[in-house]
Amino acid sequence: MTEIDRSRAFAKDVRRIVVKVGTAVVTGKGGRLALGRLGAICEQLAELNSDGFEVILVSSGAVGLGRQRLRYRQLVNSSFADLQKPQMELDGKACAGVGQSSLMAYYETMFDQLDVTVAQMLVTDSSFKDNDFRKQLSETVKSMLKMRVIPVFNENDAISTRRAPYKDSTGIFWDNDSLAALLSLELNADLLILLSDVEGLYTGPPSDPTSKLIHTFIKEKHQDEITFGEKSRLGRGGMTAKVKAAVSAAYGGIPVIITSGFAAENIGKVLKGLRVGTLFHKDAHLWAPVVDTTSRDMAVAARESSRQLQALSSEDRKQILLDIANALEANEKIIKAENDLDVAAAQEAGYEESLVARLVMKPGKISSLAASVRQLAEMEDPIGRVLKKTEVADGLILEKTSSPIGVLLIVFESRPDALVQIASLAIRSGNGLLLKGGKEARQSNAILHKVITDAIPKTVGGKLIGLVTTREEIPDLLKLDDVIDLVIPRGSNKLVSQIKNSTKIPVLGHADGICHVYVDKSCKLDMAKRIVSDAKLDYPAACNAMETLLVHKDLEHNGFLNDLIYVLQTKGVTLYGGPRASAKLKIPETKSFHHEYSSKACTVEIVEDVHGAIDHIHQHGSAHTDCIVTEDSEVAEIFLRQVDSAAVFHNASTRFCDGFRFGLGAEVGISTSRIHARGPVGVEGLLTTRWIMRGKGQVVDGDNGIVYTHKDLSVLERTEIEENGF
């Protein structure tokens, strides 16, 4: 299931919430109240109450708390001789009566400190058999919620008519988990949260290292696969009871989350749509496949769909891209909403500012992405272009044509807009695609993937573009060299190196963006200021942003260097210097020239001349994009010819190194590799070649009776070829 489905399940329009706190959460060691943990939960509920949510609390713990108090009383009143005898088993009903008053006293004290009023609501199973009781219960609770009172429910075990209320599982409800489910249905709640002592529902006992957390419970899939461990050490039912209650409420129309009550702020995280715990929802089977799809299945499906795509006419493939552009604009609000959730989660998690900046989809971003997709659609169809045509022998014609590579696996970090660019390029080039985005952009990637695949016609199928949702799937995919044809990692050198060392599949590496701007002694100062400022500040987190400013030594003496530094500092750029610049400018010395800041910071160094700049770039750069600012054409040519980078500019900002700005429509990344494709990789970088031969019955027969002409023929457009019968 995707994160967008989870947030849609309950994060919007939720007002009335039932929260159930289990015994293992309420009590700590020795059966005493876990004051800190319970206090944190009360604070969360009080905050929700003040924010306008209607909160209903169902709390276990009375029996356990009462048992602890009665054991203490039993110990105090016993003689030494009494203690040598077998201890009498305490009556559960008595424990419930004693513990309930203590539990409620704590809630009243804690919530009173938070300026919240609570009300004790003790119910029994038999009460719900009375329709008048149910009606009155609903009216009373409604009245309390209107006055911002938090009702605190518990089963009144002390007067329950069941034989052993903590063991008997018959009746309308049988424990506080099922009571919470019943109340959520009776009181028309929008969400039920069951707090436990574990993160959620696992495939096996949580203590088993092979057990995995189930993020979304699908009854048809999981009910026969789960192995439950022991019941709760303190309460009655443990996870078995919680799952039974959750399924009951979920299929009655109430979304349910089972999550840990030990983790601070989990209730708030649930309401933000973040993936915590296990979600139960009546429509869960529509969001995720009942049968698991293996990595191989996904790759094979992408290849089969790509062949269907290639079989379409050029106009039909163009129309798919136009439909995607329209769909992006039509869904802009929901895309922005999901992106906002990702950004909020990243900020809460304390991610670096540069990562959050890459994550944000700013106003106008969707329109810009749609424009780039339309630009791709209007480009000449790249598939099947005749690149070379040769007459091999009389009547034997050979053509070298452009062809899709096959299935691409692209791993990228942070930037959700990259998904749109990559997907549209894959469609234009006729390739199948598997995408793995960063976890920090999970919701953005999910909605963008859905919008795009929904726009692909059924004749091709949405499986043309597969979205890999977990890091654990990557190792399996990297082993599929028989069905995946090219891997493109977009990220750090560490990511690229890890992938190269883990696969036999060809890797098109996108390394660090250590981009340089060299300002020569013959520059125009105003031009240099504009270029340096733009290269660093237009988008500091981009891989084509300037990370090192190199300055000719003569500019140190004529004041130009100080002017350049002033421009950067007044715009908030933090400067670090090489040995020469740090001494001259009195700025901190950089620890390494090979550093990608991806923020409003850069390194400055003074060099002897253009040759010194070139040597510096070759020693410390990443062969990405480098620029010279000069009016000396000879110096410029030396720089352009000798700097061995994917893109080398004269008097232009490094920020121009971009597939869209190059007129490629979009890019899957900027390659610093030296094989196949280099620089911004657009459609052409995702193509290979194939050979097509047309003959009239010729055979080799030991090369007897055939005269090879190997004559170059003019390359005609495909329409002309077809018209002329070639």
TrEMBL record:
Lineage top rank: taxon: Eukaryota
UniProt keyword annotation of Kinase present: yes
Matches recorded under PROSITE patterns: GLUTAMATE_5_KINASE, PROA
Pathway field: Amino-acid biosynthesis; L-proline biosynthesis; L-glutamate 5-semialdehyde from L-glutamate: step 2/2; Amino-acid biosynthesis; L-proline biosynthesis; L-glutamate 5-semialdehyde from L-glutamate: step 1/2
Biological-process GO terms, alphabetical: amino acid biosynthetic process; pollen development
Gene Ontology molecular function: ATP binding; glutamate 5-kinase activity; glutamate-5-semialdehyde dehydrogenase activity
One Pfam family in the UniProt entry: Aldedh
Aspartate/glutamate/uridylate kinase domain ranges (all copies): 16-260
Enzymatic reactions: L-glutamate 5-semialdehyde + phosphate + NADP(+) = L-glutamyl 5-phosphate + NADPH + H(+); L-glutamate + ATP = L-glutamyl 5-phosphate + ADP
EC number: 2.7.2.11, 1.2.1.41
UniProt xrefs under InterPro entries: AceGlu_kinase-like_sf, Ald_DH/histidinol_DH, Ald_DH_C, Ald_DH_N, Aldehyde_DH_dom, Asp/Glu/Uridylate_kinase, G-glutamylP_reductase_CS, Glu/AcGlu_kinase
GO cellular component terms, A-Z: cytoplasm
This protein's UniProt keywords: Amino-acid biosynthesis, ATP-binding, Kinase, Multifunctional enzyme, NADP, Nucleotide-binding, Oxidoreductase, Proline biosynthesis, Transferase
Domain Aldehyde dehydrogenase: 298-564
Role summary: P5CS plays a key role in proline biosynthesis, leading to osmoregulation in plants.
Family assignment from sequence similarity: In the C-terminal section; belongs to the gamma-glutamyl phosphate reductase family. In the N-terminal section; belongs to the glutamate 5-kinase family.
NCBIfam families: P5CS, PRK00197.1, proA, proB
Entry-linked HAMAP family: ProA, ProB
Protein's UniProt name: Delta-1-pyrroline-5-carboxylate synthase
